[in-house]
Specification:
Number of helices: 9
CATH class of the largest domain: Mainly Alpha
Order of helices and strands: HHHHHHHHH
Number of strands: 0
Number of domains: 2
Largest sheet: none
Radius of gyration: 19 Å
């Protein structure tokens, strides 16, 4: 099914670099590498899988257009550029719909809280994940997005900075203070439950 989606996406793109086989192969490889993570990312932002597919396809089309214009050299990091374009497309969509941005943290929580605990600690793990989920959803939009890009998508500070138009130092500071804040709140809630 994924291969059919990739083929459909590549077939729907304009003639990459005027039909040059090399350009088509490059775009096809880029689609294989980035389509699934970009779809997950866009889906988290717009909360609509079909709209996310359209947004990701439009991001690939923008890449092809830049390639055709020979401006591709200005893109230093193609994956980071694709995330940034996808993010901007998502935000534009939300603005046009006047929808509040809500980034789902459900998948990030498993990475953040960990799931390797023994079976006898299942209830404890579920309670901890529930606390983390609540805390992540209470973060402001920018903090939540940075946490998700780092924990779920494994992006480096530099990549996050490029995607979100922030400095690397600012990303590091926001992530550090956000994790510190989450841990403090998590520990306080855990202590209050103990007694």
């Amino acid at each position: 099914m994924e291969n059919e989606q990739e083929i459909a996406l590549v077939d729907n793109l304009p003639s990459a670099a005027s039909g040059q086989a090399e350009a088509v192969l490059e775009v096809s490889e880029l689609v294989k590498q980035l389509e699934a993570p970009l779809l997950r990312y866009a889906s988290r932002i717009v909360r609509d899988t079909e709209q996310a597919k359209d947004i990701v396809q439009e991001a690939f089309i923008k890449y092809v257009r830049i390639s055709e214009e020979k401006d591709k050299d200005r893109i230093k990091n193609v994956p980071a550029w694709m995330y940034k374009i996808t993010r901007n497309q998502c935000l534009d969509h939300l603005k046009s719909k006047r929808v509040k941005v809500e980034i789902s943290a459900d998948d990030s929580i498993a990475n953040f809280a960990g799931t390797d605990a023994p079976p006898d600690r299942k209830l404890e793990r579920e309670e901890a994940m529930s606390m983390v989920r609540r805390r992540i959803m209470q973060l402001d939009e920018r903090e939540r997005e940075i946490v998700i890009l780092k924990l779920e998508h494994g992006k480096s500070y530099k990549e996050i900075a490029g995607i979100m138009d922030l400095s690397v130092t600012n990303v590091g500071f926001i992530l550090h203070t956000t994790i510190k804040k989450l841990m403090k709140e998590f520990n306080a809630e855990a202590q209050s439950r103990k007694g």
